[in-house]
Design a protein that fits this description.
The chain has helices spanning about 55-60, 75-85, 100-105, 110-125, 165-175, and strands at about 5-10, 15-20, 40-45, 45-50, 65, 70-75, 85-90, 95, 130, 140, 150-155, 180-185, 190-200. With about 200 residues, it is an alpha+beta fold. It has two domains: about 5-30 and about 125-200, Trna Endonuclease, Chain: A, domain 1, CATH 3.40.1350; about 40-105, tRNA intron endonuclease, N-terminal domain (MutS, DNA mismatch repair protein, domain I). Strands 1-2-13-12-11-10-9 form a seven-stranded mixed sheet, with helices on both faces. The chain has a six-stranded mixed sheet with strand order 5-6-4-3-7-8, with helices on one face. Helix 2 (about 75-85) runs antiparallel to helix 3 (about 100-105). The protein starts with a strand and ends with a strand.
């Protein structure tokens, strides 16, 4: 079945959207990590690791290189790596758990719990999520180490409602940069990826 959403705007014109739940296929296995875990320290809401260029962590598209000695890891990356025992983070010299790191970040980022769940799910399927901030969304997503991302993904907590104007903006922007627009709807034990695409009838 094809599910269509017909939206009437203020000028009584119709816009049609196709909605589909995407069962994202696994495109690879989660990248392995070195033993022992990489050591890093809390730096605001980030983890700062002292690593030279070319380490496996960076080759797997984690972090942003600051200089030849330092790699900065985003909160979602840090939490994911900590849970997989690939990263050990300290705060004021004391080791932190992934939950402590998450709680610390949540004080400044109210969306971190949703973003972390979606990031972990995508990485677990072999995708590479990077920040989608410049597109107005949580992630731009690569299916492997490719030059261009194929999807924009926005994490949506259970029970959230979005105005159609927000959906319309998202779809138009995604199409303009030749990407799919997916909303990651988070449930208690599951994440459903819903794609919106504008179509003409």
């Amino acid at each position: 079945k094809q599910f269509l959403l017909a939206v009437v705007d203020d000028e009584e014109e119709l816009t049609y959207y196709e909605m589909s739940v995407q069962d994202l296929p696994r495109v690879g296995e989660p990248a392995g990590c070195s033993m022992p875990p990489v050591e890093a320290s809390l730096f605001g809401t980030y983890a700062l690791a002292h690593l030279p260029p070319g380490t496996p962590l960076e080759e797997d598209w984690y972090g942003k290189r600051l200089d030849s000695r330092r790699l900065l890891l985003r909160p979602v990356e840090s939490i994911y790596l900590m849970r997989r025992h690939c990263l050990a983070v300290t705060r004021d010299g004391e080791p932190m758990t992934a939950e402590q790191f998450l709680d610390s970040v949540a004080e400044k980022d109210v969306e971190i719990r949703e973003k972390e769940r979606v990031f972990s799910d995508l990485r677990g399927r072999g995708y590479i999520p990077r920040t989608g901030y410049k597109f107005g969304h949580h992630f731009r997503v690569y299916s492997g180490k490719k030059p261009h991302s194929e999807m924009l993904v926005h994490a949506v907590p259970s029970g959230t409602t979005l105005p159609m104007s927000a959906v319309s903006r998202s779809v138009r922007l995604a199409h303009s940069v030749k990407k799919k627009m997916l909303f990651a709807c988070i449930y208690t034990t599951d994440i459903r990826y819903v794609e919106f695409a504008r179509i003409k009838l």
